[in-house]
From TrEMBL:
It catalyses: glyoxal + H2O = glycolate + H(+). GO terms for molecular function: lyase activity. NCBIfam families: PRK11780.1 (NF008747). PANTHER family: ES1 PROTEIN HOMOLOG, MITOCHONDRIAL, GLYOXALASE ELBB. Displays glyoxalase activity, catalyzing the conversion of glyoxal to glycolate. This is Glyoxalase. Keywords: Lyase. Belongs to the peptidase C56 family. Gene3D superfamilies: 3.40.50.880.
Amino acid sequence: MKKIAVILSGSGVFDGAEIHEAVLSLLAIEQEGASWHCFAPNMDQHHVINHLTGEEMAETRNVLIEAARIARGQIDDLAMLDPSQYDALLLPGGFGAAKNLSDFAFKGSECSIHPEVKRVCQQFAEEEKPAGYLCIAPAMIPLIYGPGAKGTIGTDPDTSKAFNQMGGEHIKCPVDDFVLDQKRRLLTTPAYMLAGSVSEAAEGINKLVRELVKIA
């Protein structure tokens, strides 16, 4: 059975992992006959957002502890992730990818990636193992794979411009499809960068996961 490592960035679209994308990904992995295990960095979130009002809350939450809600406790500190033990990597989106795993939400093309996240993702790349990035998570790709890496965040002009400024090659993609950088074994899909419903997000995610498991 192929094993997929999944990196989460908290719990909740505005300050962590996009929950629908995460659950759809885990379901799709199982439906393709593979297994998953979740990881997250053991760190404080950039901030905490009230998902009812959209306002920032005066409290602190831990990315790993929050992500454990989605994984039902089946999760480990990202520092424990050994890429040699897994066949592929998957990163759901949500603002946590751009606020906790990286600071893309604040610095755009001048962003950096959390050191542990960068280490793990680059090791998967160096070992030529396939990786899938959903929604806004592909914004990190140019800093992981280097110049010329292909990916999509959908059609948003500002984000795609930043992707290109960082050295990547952005490709417009509809919500129900994915982009494959064959040379790098790298897959991306817009998910909630374009999706207006759970079922729309599922179309592209299911196709991406199917290909990810196939080439793993």
